[in-house]
């Protein structure tokens, strides 16, 4: 059996992690991932948000210790679970204060030969709807992302990282990420390699059509106990010649196609109604995951 992390000399190897949820983390899974990072030495690690469960100080302390021990370049997106839940003043005034131990990694751009990882902020401290867990791309956030892409050296293509999938309408007919369609259309103009995200706790690899052409969207699963329809996993991305090959790594050795859902759900909860996307492996928990 070949090593899934084996790469050609002209390839870049990227590990894409998401929704680790310290506070309800899967300890076995993150120990395995740390060991794989040490063994495989990826060119970079992209973590697309939800480091914590409830943004508690102890959860951030554990997350920052784990990330700081990774001896490779790392970039981290902010997820909706990483915004302070129990301190509204801090949420509105200094929402990133608890990241201070790894503040240099937050929304960090990483340039590699031929490809750059460019952040796009989708988690909002507040928005004009009741469900603040969903995504919102402000004009300022989109402009900042596009400016970074436009400033890349000639011949360098972008991988965009964000927490929420950039879809306006999912299977349940509501906007998961407001401003997502506009963002995808602008990213299509710039020929991005793919948009990497998390939030929904199952992996996916989809192509979204825009007026300016298609955009590939790649989602990572979770490394927590909050499972949806697949076991804990992360994405191993092999990037060469502007193309990406995705391997969904998991301790149960479930094949990549069986780890992927065919559409983007509204949230990370296990599917409970007909029509919700379920991965072929079908590991749907009997009860909803705990929220600590």
What does this structure look like?
- With 292 residues, the chain is of the alpha/beta class.
- It is 18% helix and 22% strand.
- The protein is built from five helices and 13 strands.
- The chain has a six-stranded mixed beta sheet with strand order 4-5-7-9-11-10.
- Helix 1 links the parallel strand 1 and strand 2.
- The protein is globular.
Lay out the secondary structure:
Blueprint: E1 12-17, H1 27-40, E2 44-47, H2 57-68, E3 74-76, H3 88-93, E4 110-112, E5 115-119, E6 135-136, H4 139-150, E7 157-161, E8 177-178, H5 180-189, E9 194-197, E10 204-210, E11 213-219, E12 233-240, E13 243-250
Parallel strand pairs: 1-2, 2-3, 5-7, 6-8, 7-9, 9-11
Antiparallel strand pairs: 1-12, 4-5, 10-11, 12-13
Number of helical stretches of at least 4 residues: 5
Helix-strand makeup class: alpha/beta
Sheet with the most strands? Answer: 6 strands, mixed
Dominant shape: globular
Roughly how much helix do the residues carry, as a percent range? 10-25%
Low-confidence stretches: none
Rg over CA atoms, rounded to whole Å, is 17 Å
Distance between the termini: 40 Å
Q: Give the percentage of residues in beta strands.
A: 15-25%
Number of strands: 13
The strand order across the widest sheet is 4-5-7-9-11-10
Overall pLDDT: 88
Order of helices and strands: EHEHEHEEEHEEHEEEEE
């Amino acid at each position: 059996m070949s090593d899934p992390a084996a790469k050609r000399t002209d390839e870049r190897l990227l590990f894409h992690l998401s929704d680790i949820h310290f506070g309800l983390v899967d300890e076995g899974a993150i120990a395995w991932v740390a060991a794989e990072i040490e063994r495989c030495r990826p060119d970079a690690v992209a973590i697309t948000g939800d480091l914590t469960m409830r943004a508690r100080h102890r959860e951030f302390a554990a997350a920052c210790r784990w990330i700081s021990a990774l001896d490779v370049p790392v970039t981290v997106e902010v997820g909706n679970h990483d915004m302070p839940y129990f301190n509204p003043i801090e949420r509105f005034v200094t929402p990133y204060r608890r990241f201070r131990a790894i503040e240099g990694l937050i929304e960090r751009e990483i340039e590699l030969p031929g490809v750059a990882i460019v952040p796009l902020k989708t988690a909002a401290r507040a928005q004009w709807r009741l469900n603040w867990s969903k995504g919102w791309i402000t004009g300022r956030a989109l402009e900042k992302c596009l400016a970074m892409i436009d400033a890349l050296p000639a011949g360098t293509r972008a991988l965009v990282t964000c927490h929420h999938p950039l879809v306006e309408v999912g299977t349940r007919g509501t906007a998961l990420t407001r401003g997502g369609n506009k963002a995808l259309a602008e990213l299509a103009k710039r020929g991005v390699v793919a948009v990497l995200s998390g939030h929904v706790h199952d992996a996916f690899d989809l192509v979204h059509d825009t007026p300016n052409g298609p955009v590939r969207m790649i989602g990572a699963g979770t490394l927590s106990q909050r499972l949806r329809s697949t076991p804990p996993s992360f994405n191993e991305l092999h990037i060469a010649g502007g193309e990406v090959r995705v391997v969904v790594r998991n301790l149960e050795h479930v094949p990549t196609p069986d780890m992927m859902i065919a559409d983007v759900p509204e949230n990370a909860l296990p599917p409970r109604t007909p029509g919700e996307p379920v991965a072929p492996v079908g590991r749907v928990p009997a009860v909803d995951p705990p929220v600590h």
